[in-house]
Every structure is written in C-alpha cells, then in structure tokens.
Amino acid sequence: MGYHLAKALLKSEHEVFIIERSSLKSETIREELGSLVIVGDGCEEAVLKEAGTSRADVFIAATGADEDNLVACQIAKHRFQVPRTISIINNPNNEKLFVELGIDVCVSSTDIILSHIEEELPAHSLIHFMAIRGSNREVVGIRIPPDAAVVGRVLGDVPIPEDSLISFILKKDGTLMVPDSEAVLGSGDEVVAITTADGEEALREALTGAA
Amino acid sequence: MGCGRVGSTIATALWKEGHQVVVLDANPESLRRLPTELQKEAIVGDGTLEEHLRNGGIENTDAFVAVSTGDTANILAGQMAKHVFQVPKVVCRIDDTARYEIYTELGLTAVSSTQMVSDLISQAVYS
After folding, report:
1. Are B77 and B66 spatial neighbours (Cβ–Cβ below 8 Å)?
2. Is the distance from CB of A126 to CB of A114 less than 8 angstroms?
3. Does B44 contact A at CB distance below 8 Å?
4. How many CA atoms lie within 13 A of B2 on its CB side?
5. ipTM attached to this prediction
6. Which three-class secondary structure state does DSSP give residue B35?
7. pLDDT, tens only, B65-117
8. Does B71 touch chain A (CB under 8 A)?
9. Is residue A185 a contact partner of residue A152, using CB atoms and an 8 Å limit?
C-alpha cells in the first residue's frame, strides 16, 4: 500500500521519502521511483532519524501491522515532532485507542473497503460514507426501498431522530434535492444524513420501515 | 501476554505466590512451558486484540504484563490495557533501548532486557 500511496503523492508533487523493511521491495521502489527509499524498520528511532523524519510535515504509517503503525507514529510525533501523523488501521477496533494516544488521523482500510462493498450490494439500506473527525458523528447514505412507509410522503412528516440531520437527497433520477419539509420522498431515493453510531438504527428505521 | 522463557517464568513465580494468573500466547506450543495447572487456565490468542484480552479476563485484573518478544506488540497491548481497560498496573517489555526511553517518558512502565543484561555484564566486567 505504501508504494502506491507514495506514487500518488509524488504525482501530486509532494516530496516523499519511504522507509521499507524488505530490501527486495526497496530495490523495486528505487528502480521505479528513484533514490527516495531507505531499508530499515520504521519503528526504530535510528532509522527514522536517518530518513530525515524531523523535516517531515506529515508521517504516514501504512504497514499491515497495527502495532508497528502505532509505534512508528508515536516515535515520529514524540521524538521528531512531526506535526501530523497518519496511521492506516487494519483492525477497526483500534481507531479509538490510536486517536486517544495522539495519532492525528486514522484511516481504517477495513471500513473503507466495507463501505464500497455495502454500496455494491443490491439490498443495502445504509452505507457508512465517513466518520467526522473529532466527533462521534458519521455521514451515512440510506436508500429508500419500494415498500417503505415514507414513499410518497413529505420529509416534514417523517419522524427524523433528534441526533440526525438530513443533508441532501439524491433522487432516483440523479437530481439533487434540498431536504426541506416539503420534499417528497420516493422509492430508490438516497438520503444522505449526518447521524451518530447510536442514532443510525433509528434513522434507518424511520426512512426504510415498511408501511 | 507472551509465554516464552520470560513470560512462563514470571507466570509460574506469581502463581506459586498464590496469585491467579492467566497466560495468553498466540502459539499453543509455547504454553507447554507452564505447569499443568496454569496450562489449564491459559489462552491461545493475540494480546493486541481487545476481544482476546477480554477473553483472558482483563476487565477484572489487577495487573497486566506484556513480555512477548515483539516490542511493538507489547507496546500496543500495554497501552490498550492501560487506556481501554484501565488496568491499575501495566508493565511492558521493550527490548530496543531507544524505544524503551521514549515510552518511559510517555508514562508506560517498561523493562528493557537489552539494557538490563548489558548493565549487568558491564558491572561484571568492572568488578
């Protein structure tokens, strides 16, 4: 993942430096991207120092092991004062702890893949688009099924739970609709809303519950 | 967490003192180092996973010791025990001396076997 990330960042004209444990992989990186890689364990202070971590604006840990990503980010932050540390999280349960431990941004690969898969499943009713950092809120999309009680009714008549806010409605025909109380809901419309982990089930029920 | 030579020695000593000890190790073979009574209570699992720690009874424990040979796994498990489960006493083995210093500064109680063995050998040389 780190290699493809580096390639994308280079393309958008960022200065990138890579730490890679495997000498075989780093040889490939060197051949393809040039001399911007050192071989070593990114969880070791000496390796981070050699890589010039103290000059970095952003440090990204993208290994497949959460414990290594955590330690690399913590050392980058506390020894080299990197202003922004980003960790890939393989086990979504670790996100809360990593944030508490001072990692600035956590990107959960499992959650991202899951949301894409949810989107492709024909019978889905709720998709998690993203979590809003620094709050317990999330952006979700809810598709209204044909048998829902709300089909043909106006939004003002739908009991939206208190902790949820409807942001916009993507009509089945692809047009965007502002969610005022007069907006009529139809089968196949996608309602995009901000809600909480606790509130999402009530919101889903309000919009998709059968007549 | 971790049932190598260090983990099994600590677990056995604590158990002999009368403490209730649950040992967690990813490799079932490692648990053979324990006395049979402790093997019965031991759990095969990954100490960096919340659910495995929960299975081991971490929510009611007085102390958590992470002494696997993986520094970063010990550091993650130790911080999880401290911050997620609020275990009153957490001790981590961190062999890399630079990392040992960093995490000691960050408030984790750590022991570096590299540092300790080096110190003892130096002392022996000079004595």
Report:
1. yes
2. no
3. no
4. 25
5. 0.90
6. coil
7. 999 999 999 999 999 999 999 999 999 999 999 999 999 999 999 999 999 99
8. yes
9. yes
pLDDT at A122 over 70: no
Domain B5-126 coded CATH 1.20.1250.20? no
Residue A111 contacts B where some CB pair is shorter than 8 Å:
no
What distances in angstroms separate CA A32 from CA A4, A23, B54, B68, one per listed residue? 11, 14, 45, 37
CATH of domain A2-107: 3.40.50.720
A–B interface: beta-carbon pairs under 8 A = 52
Partner-chain residue, chosen from A44, A66, A75, that has the shortest CB–CB distance to B76: A66
A152 alpha-carbon distance from chain centroid: 34
Give me B119's structure tokens. Answer: 């110190």
Upper half-sphere CA count for residue B74 (Cβ side, 13 Å): 25
Q: Which residues of A fall within a CB distance of 8 Å from B50?
A: 93
> Could you report how far apart the first and last alpha carbons of chain B are, in Å?
36
Whether A78 has its CB under 8 Å from any CB of chain B: the answer is yes
Nearest neighbour of A97 by CB, restricted to B70, B80, B106: B80
Inspect the interface and report whether the beta carbons of B76 and A71 lie closer than 8 Å.
yes
Question: What is the pTM assigned to this prediction?
Answer: 0.78
> Most A CBs within 10 Å: which of B76, B80, B97, B112, as the mutation test of the A interface?
B76
Sequence-separated (6 or more) residues with CB below 8 Å from residue A67: B48, B70, B72, B73, B75, B76, B77
The third-level CATH classification (topology) of the domain covering A121-208 is Alpha-Beta Plaits (3.30.70)
For B1-28, write each residue's pLDDT tens digit: 999 999 999 999 999 999 999 999 999 9
